[in-house]
Amino acid sequence: MSTAFKSADILLPKNADMSKWAVVACDQYTSEPEYWADVEKITEGAKSALNLILPEVYLEDDNVDERIADIHKNMDSYISEGVFEEYKDAMIYVERTQSDGKVRAGIVGAIDLEEYDYRKGSKSAVRATEATVVERIPPRIKVRRGAPVELPHIMILVDDTEKSVVEPLEAHKAEMKKLYDFDLMKKGGHIAGYLIEKPMQEKIIAALEKLGDIDAFNTKYGLKETSPLVYAMGDGNHSLATAKEFYEEQKRENPDKDMSNALCRYALVEIVNLHSPALEFEAIHRIVTDVDTKALMSEMTAALELSEEKAEQAIVVCDNGEEKTLYIHKPTSKLTVGSLQNFLDSYIKEKGGKVDYIHGAEVIRELSTKENSIGFMLPDMGKEELFPTVIVDGALPRKTFSMGHAEDKRFYVEARKILK
Length: 420
Prior knowledge:
Blueprint (H helix, E strand, L loop, with lengths): L4 E2 L1 E6 L4 H4 L1 E2 L8 H11 L20 H17 L3 E14 L5 E10 L3 E2 L8 E2 L10 H7 L4 E2 L4 E4 L18 E7 L6 E7 L1 H14 L2 H8 L9 E5 L1 H17 L12 E8 L7 E3 L1 E5 L3 H12 L1 E2 L5 E7 L2 E7 L7 H16 L2 E5 L2 H7 L5 E5 L8 H8 L7 E3 L7 E2 L3 E2 L3
Helix pairs in contact: 4-7, 8-9
Organism: Ruminococcus bicirculans (ex Wegman et al. 2014)
Pfam family, one: DUF1015
InterPro entries: UCP033563 (IPR008323)
């Protein structure tokens, strides 16, 4: 049996101020250009991952092509100047102390893109957990196309109830070479990384192979699947989808080339146990505007058979300052958010209106007092629901859950060559 996760030739900067090197994932603070302007000030004149990434706040700028060209030049420069030290055939054990003080542990290595399919209904070992917006991929491929290295902010979850993959490493930190240990900028917490030697790597792979055993998988979930879901996307799905599409592009352009060991076949990721106490799922609520709220509620009540009689799926409707809990007696998804989203998508397509995705109940309450607006508050999704729902329903509706605050998302530390 094989696993989609393996060791990689990992690059780390040497002789760099790591607190200036590491910056948060490019898809954060997209509505806060002042955040990224401050990061530019902090890293000015220093070797920094900021010079090798494109913050998505700039994705629509007129000079985006110039930015991408500069990124590629900076990558070439960092390689030629010997900024990186390469750790061959490596995995790195990472301990990230979040802004709330909780420690999130993970393992950095490579994921095989042949084992990843982000399309809904996929039966691959590595799957998307939320719908992938394909329109978001092409601008990201521009960054990857011609880039000699990649820097990952991808976090992949494993459903390891026995805590057999990541957690055993904590007891062996004293035996491992410490690669970095520093505070992250702008309330990002702290991070430390340790080099995992080959014997421990073999134990990790064995534990992952056990998670992928089809008989054990079907027993665990009460299913009769033919292919197990071992790796579910946590963060960075569109980045992994971009890596996948770039790899497929390379295969199409080189039909006679053996791509079995191509560098672009793999992507650098961090795997984290779904059951880490540092991981918390929070609901993302919905506000619908520019609609006749009475008409919407009338159709929703009929379509989902809403009533005050208790059922498994419940939503809180916020309308003009009033709140009411209603129960769905005709669900169209395994999750409440799926039943709601399915209806809203259909209704808005036919009748018009806009839907926005909101963190925080107080914001929903405030927005729902505005004319022609109505809010829907959803229950937090239990972590234990993630894998069974993705297996049965496929990728979840977009904006199903949020996993941590912006400052706690992955920071760019490690890199890997994707061109020879």
